[in-house]
Specification:
With 397 residues, the chain is of the alpha+beta class. 45% of the residues lie in helices and 21% in strands. It has helices at residues 49-61, 119-125, 129-146, 154-170, 184-187, 209-225, 246-257, 282-298, 304-329, 337-343, 350-364, 370-378, 380-396, and strands at 3-14, 22-28, 34-37, 40-42, 67-80, 86-98, 111-117, 178-182, 197-202, 229-234, 264-268. A hairpin with a 5-residue loop joins strand 5 and strand 6. The N and C termini lie far apart (47 Å).
Length: 397
């Protein structure tokens, strides 16, 4: 029998993008072994990974002034426990930022020193090779944001924190229910004024009091903190429970397949049902995205806010298409936009890849030029047609 457990931890980095410093802790274990690690520990009963990561940073490093800034995915490994029992552990990793380097290591747990290190030194100091990969993901997000620069959003952190704290109570009567955070708010490339905050919930009847309460929490959090936020509910097959249409079903299935990769559980239980089967009709999915983009572009938009919203939605469709292609070919690849662009390199979808590259550059520059966004959006339908034709040709061979 294998002993199984779940933990959560955080890469904590100072919020100065020009010279970021990463927190690592030197620990002497009870066995006398010395190691250099990030704050991490086991989930307590009824505790979701995000809350556990926040608690562990406070307990092990004495650092309570942190902001949620992204989800770095799930690490899984096996080992032999101290009593000789085979064990398996999963660790959800988050990216937190802070404006202070004042720490108080938990000496009663063997933490003898807290160090703030630049990325190369942190990678070299970290004791575990798998954690070095987590560090690499964090550094990639930081480097991407530093280019403009795009400071990490405190508004996003406040909104996610409110949702995570209040959602636990809202779904308390549904032990199998959970709430996840997905999209750019999870991937670390959230941009204020451009990006939405996307939540999903599972194992909740859409007419239940819990579902209604979650919607009220999100609406209140959005009013308080500013970013647009939405909630979608999954049915037992991974589709949108409120039957909003194929576009929403497609995005729901994608988000559920990515739990532990770039969808984070922030309240309740992780989804355990077979909710998100792989989609075989990739060409059909691209057709749905194409039709939505064409319809949005055909509408007349006079106000600047309407123009921006239309361009933003069409470019979101573009990103969804790229992520569908990559997820169908390489499910293990992260769906952060730069990774998607790189994963499509050398493939048959070059028009789509080049447009995605240009869209990533637009976002990296702050996503504030509406006319540039509209020019990019106008290229989306033809790129989707070309990608769909490539898929059809490949299927015919």
């Amino acid at each position: 029998m294998t002993r199984r457990s779940a933990s959560a931890g955080a890469v904590v980095v100072t919020d100065d993008l020009s010279s970021p410093q990463i927190l690592l802790l030197d620990q002497v274990r009870k066995t006398g072994e010395r190691q250099t690690v990030a704050p991490k520990g086991q989930l307590e009963p009824g505790e979701a990974p995000l809350q556990a990561a926040r608690r562990e940073v406070a307990e092990e490093a004495g650092l309570t002034s942190t902001c949620y800034s992204g989800y770095l995915g799930q690490e899984a490994y096996t080992f032999t426990d101290n009593d000789g029992m085979p064990a398996a552990k999963v660790v959800d990793w988050f990216l937190f930022t802070t404006s202070t380097t004042v720490t108080t290591p938990a000496r009663e747990e063997g933490f003898v020193q807290a160090r703030w290190l630049e990325a190369p030194a942190a990678r070299q100091a970290a004791s575990h090779p798998q954690f070095q990969q987590v560090l690499d993901r964090a550094v990639a997000v930081i480097t991407w944001r530093a280019a403009h620069p795009l400071p990490f959003s405190r508004k996003l952190s406040h909104l996610v924190d409110q949702m995570a704290a209040e959602a636990e109570a809202a779904i308390a009567g549904h032990p199998d229910a959970g709430v996840g955070l997905c999209g750019s708010a999870a991937r670390g490339d959230f941009i204020e004024g451009w990006s939405d905050v996307d939540f999903i919930a599972w194992n909740l009847p859409p007419t239940s009091a819990a579902a209604t309460s979650l919607q009220e929490i999100i609406s209140d959090a959005a009013r308080r903190h500013g970013p647009r936020a939405s909630l979608h509910l999954a049915d037992g097959h991974g589709a949108e429970a409120r039957r909003l249409g194929p576009l929403y079903d497609m995005k729901m299935r994608m988000a559920l397949r990515r739990v532990g990769l770039d969808t984070a559980v922030i309240a309740g239980a992780a989804p355990t049902f077979a909710a998100a089967p792989e989609r075989a009709d990739l060409a059909g999915d691209l057709a749905v995205l194409h039709d939505f983009a064409v319809a949005r572009l055909a509408e007349r938009h006079r106000a600047e806010s309407e123009r921006e919203d239309a361009a933003r939605q069409v470019l979101s469709v573009l990103a969804s298409a790229g992520r569908l292609l990559v997820a169908s070919r390489a499910p293990e690849v992260g769906l952060w936009l730069p990774d998607v662009v790189e994963a499509l390199r050398g493939g048959p979808d070059d028009e789509l890849r080049l447009l995605l590259r240009d869209y990533d550059a637009y976002r990296r520059a702050g996503a504030s030029d509406i006319e540039r966004a509209e020019r990019l959006a106008a290229r989306v339908p033809s790129a989707l047609v070309a990608a769909r034709s490539m898929i059809a040709e490949s299927a015919a061979l």
